[in-house]
Amino acid sequence: MNANVETGLPEARYTYGGDEFVFVELAEAMSLKVNFRAMAITNRLREENVEGVMDICPSNASYMVRIDPDVLHPDRLISRLKELDEEVGDVKGFELRTRVVDVPVMMEDPWTHEALMRFRDRHQDPEATDLEYSARINGYDSKDDFIAALLGSPWLITMIGFVPGLPWCYQLVPPEEQVEVPKYVRPRTFTPERAFGFGGGFAVVYSVQGAGGYQLYGLAPAPVLDVKQRLKDFEDSIVFPKPGDVWKYRGVDQEEFDEIRAGVEDGSFEYKKADFTFHTDRALEDPHAYNKEILGVLYGD
Amino acid sequence: MAIRVKSPGLLTTVQDTGRFGEYAIGMPPSGAMDVFSYQVGNYLVGNRDGAAGLEITYFGPELEFTEDAVIAVTGAEMPPKINGEEAPTWETLRVREGDVLSFDYLKNGARSYLTVSGGIDAPIFMHSRSTYTLIGLGGLDGRALQEGDELQLGEAGNGDARVGKKVDADNIPRYTKETELRVIIGLASYRLTEESMEEFLNVEWTVTPDADRVGYRYRGGELGFVEREQPAGAGSDPANVVDFGYPIGSIQVPGGVEPIVLMNDAVTGGGYATIGTVISADRDRLAQSKTNDKTRFRSVELEEALEAREDRRKRLAEIKDALV
């Protein structure tokens, strides 16, 4: 990928996804900054209410727009997107009006453990669990240190998709602290619903049961998808996560897991969350200091 | 009640044009795979555009009508029978209370569409009646039809006056066991080596048994990726990219040996390199191809894709006008 001479940012690739999509890859590599750019550009496009635009899908280091080409020629959209890219530039001063959310997760739970043991023959290291393997290849002394890192710093929702409601989460830590793991050698044919997994540089919560190739670490008691919209958090949408959400995964034990499950069953469960204006500059400059502040907003300390 | 399902067939689902505008939450559109056949079916029975019909895959159901109705069967060559007697396709038919519609074996194509005057009246979920079986939403309880199901019909329009009308032979697609699909090369096509791209476009691919509403998987060649140091976040396999969005019709090549074309119920994003997209006008024909059929991919420019789209739109309008 060529770099833009003025900004030093990689030159975006604009391509057609057939006659109905425009796909823009801002960079091949993931970084917080490139995701902020994807969000800034797609937010602006959304505000413009362009006729002929059907779907605007920000993703990790890219974005995609579905159009009705009978109304809007793909080339016309692309020239506007290039202007928006210029306007957004290196996202200096970009703010996201978002929310910070407490997301309970039970690490090393019996259900994902059973699932991962069933598919050891499809894994890089059949002798270890997914957590032990991931801790080792990321240079952690123990699986507990690795878990502490995952649960210690908050995450940004950088993309939604695969299936309805599945969030991709990128941790708000400096590049050298980013965890990276391969996906399974061959994907599993089964993953429990609400499994907490990791692949490439991203954590996910599987919104539904199904196939999957991410390393499995735990299980979230609360849903990210509620098709029947029974819970309060799903009043406006069947999907809870939104791009730009800041999530803090919090480890829970079996007792709290069961309590939350009971709340989900009787319809009383609600995520703990707080409105929040996310200053991207601060997350890039000193993530750990900023994370303390973010968690203060959520937990009120 | 208007239709009782005596036997459901292999995979029969309620579909309309699809559930659009929800891609950003990971919701694929679903909807009729062969839009052309489905739309013409609605014209034949005098329905407004977007009325729901049944998509019938590979092996047909047996359906009993519990009231008089006006119907049409379009799409694959899977001869319909009314009370055991063969009935024409691409033609408006009348059925009476107690009549049973069944289907002979599939001869060509893969999917037939049954449209009924008034449309299938399944509940609307997120502005569509289309069935998305993976999550279990839309259509009839989010699933394929089962024995004993009862389907309601919407208020019938002017179907009666159309009985006996048929689509001009020139406008009826002919399905063969060889399909050419036009593709716009792009997306992350830079990941494939030049030789592999050439091979992709020259090989005659075979449709594998993995060919359904989620996507079509092919076999026949072996493609390689340009060597690189994998970028941050992508994962270590050369077929992997930093997870991104997948357009409908996009082609990915996990492992290099089995290209997959994503279709109406596909996953909306993921971490495999995509190399191009089958143009919208040709996805009707893709939907009529089946396991062991041969497929070639031909690279075209955007202008040809837009012309093909416009041609299809004009042809549909012509068929619609001729039936009034």
List the helices and strands and how they pair.
The complex is a heterodimer of chains A (301) and B (324).
Chain A: E1 13-17, E2 21-25, H1 32-48, E3 53-58, E4 62-67, H2 74-88, E5 95-107, H3 110-118, H4 130-137, H5 143-152, E6 155-160, E7 167-171, E8 195-199, E9 202-205, E10 215-219, E11 246-251, H6 254-266, E12 272-279, H7 280-285, H8 287-299
Parallel strand pairs in A: 5-11
Antiparallel strand pairs in A: 1-2, 2-4, 3-4, 5-10, 5-12, 6-7, 6-11, 7-9, 8-9, 8-10
Helix pairs in contact in A: 1-2, 4-5
Chain B: E1 3-7, E2 11-15, H1 35-44, E3 53-57, E4 62-65, E5 69-77, E6 80-82, E7 85-86, E8 93-95, E9 100-103, E10 108-116, E11 150-151, E12 178-185, H2 194-202, E13 205-211, E14 215-219, E15 240-245, E16 250-252, E17 260-262, E18 269-272, E19 274-278, H3 283-287, E20 294-299, H4 302-323
Parallel strand pairs in B: 12-20
Antiparallel strand pairs in B: 1-4, 1-11, 2-3, 3-10, 4-9, 5-8, 5-10, 6-7, 6-9, 12-19, 13-14, 13-20, 14-17, 15-18, 16-17, 16-19
Helix pairs in contact in B: 1-4
**What is the percent of helical residues of chain B?**
10-25%
Number of strands of chain B: 20
What's the CATH topology label of the largest domain in chain A? Cyclophilin
Oligomer classification: heterodimer
Portion in helices of chain A: 25-40%
Q: What's the Cα radius of gyration of chain B?
A: 20 Å
Please count the beta strands of chain A (DSSP E, at least 2 residues each).
12
Give the class-level CATH name of the largest domain in chain A: Mainly Beta
Counted up, domains of chain A total 2
Output the number of helix runs of chain A: 8
> Largest contact between protein chains?
A-B, 61 and 52 residues
* Through-space gap between termini of chain B: 28 Å
Q: Which class do the helix and strand fractions of chain A yield? A: alpha+beta
| Principal-axis shape of chain B | elongated
Strand order of the largest sheet of chain A: 5-10-8-9-7-6-11
Secondary-structure element order of chain B, N to C = EEHEEEEEEEEEEHEEEEEEEHEH
Tell me the major beta sheet of chain B. Answer: 7 strands, mixed, barrel
Provide a count of the helices of chain B.
4
Outline of chain A, from the CA principal axes? globular
Strand order of the largest sheet of chain B: 12-19-16-17-14-13-20
